[in-house]
TrEMBL record:
Superkingdom of origin organism: Bacteria
Originating species: Croceitalea marina
Keyword terms of this UniProt record: FAD, Flavoprotein, Oxidoreductase
Domain Acyl-CoA oxidase C-terminal: 611-753
Cross-referenced Pfam families: ACOX (PF01756), ACOX_C_alpha1 (PF22924), Acyl-CoA_dh_M (PF02770), Acyl-CoA_dh_N (PF02771)
Names of required cofactors: FAD
PANTHER family: ACYL-COENZYME A OXIDASE (PTHR10909:SF378), ELECTRON TRANSPORT OXIDOREDUCTASE (PTHR10909)
Lineage, uppermost ranks: Bacteria, Pseudomonadati, Bacteroidota, Flavobacteriia, Flavobacteriales
Residue intervals of the Acyl-CoA oxidase C-alpha1 domain: 412-563
Domain Acyl-CoA oxidase/dehydrogenase middle: 268-376
Domain spans labelled Acyl-CoA dehydrogenase/oxidase N-terminal: 161-259
Protein's UniProt name: Acyl-CoA dehydrogenase
Length: 754
């Protein structure tokens, strides 16, 4: 073999060209990628560039004899191909070249070729007659370091909790009997309480640490053990205890909060009714004040007015009951009242009926039940009266005079529960993705008949595309929910409308994402995913209800959309005519910018991976949807259609507004988080993750963008290709990414993940 025909600078390119021509990878756009790299490579002289350029001519490809010489050159080097390298082909090519000239350093331009052509080891390792080390994943990134970045504020506390969970009582096992499941879950909740974990969000005076953010992370970790445990924990300490903490006064705190945190007082949160579901304002249970007895009479007036699906109903001694407060014959709206349910012998008290909801699709370790009240008297002191009270003369008083504002203020204090539900759903996604990814890094299936060994599932582009974008989205939502809980916990004002709007949309989008993701993971694991022992079945069943409780998702998206429209209206009203003119001018200039062919056809990597493009694209969609929804509603009202009916006519449009709002908020908060990170490889990794999530969202809404002229068909196609390529780029790091979820190893009990 005549090596003198190849210069030292050309040698590192030879493995690339061998792969290119052996697998016929080159399309017109790919040729341009390689040509650009060659043009920018200062290590090549003009003769080298001319030679490499000639090898890119598809009309006059290299002769078979030339390609055989390339193969012989590679084989004679005796170099080992290590699939888990960050850039395996570039590293392999460099080692081949160094065998002959010992002067080749890392070449960033070759890395760009490998990256932009999406060349994976499983595409070419069979072509080389060399030893192949098939490590299933790269160790370039460390999962523990990613976990530390994501959970930095409370990492020490979280790690302490992870160690605490190593006790045998938290071991996961298959339990299909609800009574036994409930018994186990209750004992786990009591153990958590005895060690101070339940009271974390309460003030220090009542055994807590005033740390709602850390409490939410603890809740998330309990989902890794058992969904029933997380929900039972959330009902006892978050909903029941949270209602006392957030809606009660100091005397309620002194009397009940410490006992609640220690589970000496078990309670439930009785808001939802059979007949009124999401319509809390329309609930029918009444609490009528009797002045001469200083008592409230709690009553279920009709057949479908009972409290429904109440967690902890069978174990509770007391309920936080939401009812219409009637004072002096006037309805003062929905308030919460503490109502004892059972005596010290755990016997149900007179006037109260509790029935078990029975077996459910999931969460059978939670004792959900129905509750009826028949003229049940409780002291007026049991009214949780932070926002509305009855004075000594029997008159109702409140600092919040507007009943609508008072109602939403009361509900706004309970937004933390909605964030926890979203975190729980996301935890289910993380666990399912961890199982599915780890399975795909072990399970082999099919080959090209040239190899004895079959390919790993995760080496198939289709498998990468079904799982890795969902890993990316899980990262985005993790950051977003951390931010949401911080905003909620640190908001000391009574007005929580903004965070309520934000969380309403996020809860809907994230719980729907969880349902979709867990199903995808189940299918990605084949029949193994259907076995209970591998956890995905329980995750699927347990989280399915998350799309419904703490607010039905369809209702919540409308709530988010109405919040967006209220802000839109306030902005216009504040600015008057000038604001309208500005809106029209901005809308017109935005439209011109996006239909500019230079923008709508721009497909280079730097543009498509740029956070500014992602933010602009999603924000443009939100603004257009908000604008057109407002104009449609205004048009109907101008025609005499009542405002309620006008909203109904654009209901599906409003859902898109709510979804778009949540998508913008998510990516905005995520990129803000990344901006504050120190420069380095982990920041770069998380930028890649953000790009994959963002492009996946834009791709999902491609029809709308195409209709608006925001994207050309060429750009839409390029985005689809980039989603595929990013999934491939992140494939070597999939193991590190799921390790970065921070799920303790002892809780990943699925056999297929070990």
């Amino acid at each position: 073999m005549d090596l003198n025909k190849y210069s030292n600078s050309i040698l590192p390119y030879i493995p690339f060209f061998y792969v290119i021509w052996s697998d016929d990878l080159l399309s017109a756009s790919e040729i341009e990628v390689v040509k650009t790299a060659i043009k920018e490579d200062d290590s090549l002289n003009n003769e080298d560039k001319k030679q490499l350029g000639a090898w890119l001519d598809k009309s006059n490809p290299p002769q078979n004899e030339e390609i055989k010489q390339w193969q012989q050159l590679i084989t004679n080097s005796g170099v080992t191909l290590i699939e888990s390298e960050a850039f395996p082909l570039e590293a392999f090519a460099r080692k081949v070249a160094n065998f002959y000239c010992n002067s080749c350093s890392s070449n960033e331009l070759l890395k760009q070729i490998e990256l932009n052509l999406g060349i994976q080891p499983n595409h070419y390792n069979h072509l080389f007659n060399v030893e192949v080390i098939q490590q299933p994943f790269s160790d370039f990134y460390n999962g523990a370091e990613i976990d530390a970045i994501l959970n930095k504020p409370f990492l020490k506390k979280i790690n302490t909790f992870r160690t605490f969970l190593k006790q045998d009582t938290f071991n996961w096992n298959i339990e299909t009997n609800k009574e036994k499941a409930r018994e186990k879950v209750l004992s786990q909740v009591k153990l958590l309480a005895a060690n101070g974990w339940g009271a974390l969000a309460y003030p220090k005076a009542y055994g807590g640490e005033d740390n709602m953010e850390c409490y939410a992370s603890i809740f998330e970790h309990l989902m890794f053990i058992d969904g029933s445990l997380a929900i039972k924990f959330g009902v006892q300490f978050g909903l029941f205890g949270g209602s006392i903490h957030n809606l009660g006064s100091k005397r309620h705190h002194d009397q009940y909060l410490k006992a609640t945190g220690e589970t000496n007082l078990l309670g439930c949160f009785a808001m939802t009714e059979t007949g009124h579901g999401s319509n809390v304002r329309g609930i029918k249970t009444t609490a009528t004040y009797i002045h001469n007895e200083k008592a409230l009479v709690i009553h279920t007036p009709g057949k479908n007015d009972n409290k429904e699906y109440i967690g902890n109903a069978l174990d509770s001694k007391m309920a936080s009951v939401f009812a219409q407060l009637i004072v002096n014959g006037k309805n003062r709206g929905v308030h919460a009242i503490l109502v004892p349910l059972r005596n010290d012998k755990h016997e149900v008290l007179e006037g109260i009926t509790v029935k078990d909801n029975g077996y459910k699709l999931g969460l059978n370790g939670v004792d959900n039940g129905k509750i009826w009240f028949n003229q049940v008297k409780v002291p007026v002191a049991n009214l949780l009266d932070k926002y509305g009270r009855i004075d000594s003369d029997g008159n109702y008083e409140s600092e919040i005079k507007n009943p609508n504002k008072r109602f939403f203020t009361m509900l706004g204090t309970l937004v933390g529960g909605r964030i926890c539900v979203a975190k729980g759903a996301l935890a289910g996604s993380k666990m399912a993705l961890t199982v599915a990814i780890k399975h795909a890094l072990q399970r082999r299936q099919f080959n090209d008949s040239l190899k004895v060994q079959e390919d790993l599932l995760l080496d198939y582009p289709t498998h990468q595309l079904r799982l890795i974008p969902k890993v990316a989205t899980s990262y985005v939502y993790h950051v977003v929910l951390q931010k949401a809980m911080k905003e909620y916990a640190q908001n000391t004002s009574n007005d929580k409308r903004k965070i309520e709007t934000q969380v309403a949309g996020l809860k809907a989008c994230i719980t729907w994402f969880a349902t979709e993701t867990i199903q995808e993971c189940r299918e990605a694991c084949g029949g193994k995913g259907y076995l209970l022992e591998n956890r995905i079945g329980d995750l699927k069943n347990d989280t399915d209800i998350f799309t419904t409780f703490e607010g039905d998702n369809t209702v919540l998206l409308q709530l988010a959309a109405k919040g967006v429209l209220s802000d839109f209206k306030s902005e216009l009203n504040a600015g008057g005519f000038v604001s309208v003119l500005k809106l029209l001018r901005d809308r017109f200039s935005d439209k011109l910018a996006t239909i500019n062919p230079a923008y709508s056809n721009k497909t280079d990597k730097d543009h498509l991976y740029n956070p500014k493009f992602h933010l602009h694209a999603m924000d443009y969609r939100l603004r257009r949807l908000t604008d057109t929804a407002a104009m449609r509603i205004r048009g109907y009202i101008k025609k005499g259609v009542p405002s309620y009916q006008a909203f109904l006519k654009v209901q599906t449009h409003l859902l898109e507004v709510g979804k778009a709002y949540s998508e913008v908020l998510s990516i905005k908060w995520y990129y803000e988080f990344i901006t504050d990170l120190p420069e380095g490889k982990y920041k770069n990794l998380l930028l890649q993750v953000g790009a994959l999530h963002s492009l996946s969202i834009i791709r999902k809404d491609a029809v709308w963008y195409l209709e608006q002229g925001y994207l050309s068909s060429t750009k839409s196609k390029a985005i689809r290709q980039r989603v595929e390529r990013l999934s491939t780029e992140l494939r070597p790091h999939a193991h590190a990414l799921v390790e970065g979820f921070g799920i303790p190893e002892h809780l990943v009990t699925a056999p297929i993940a070990n």
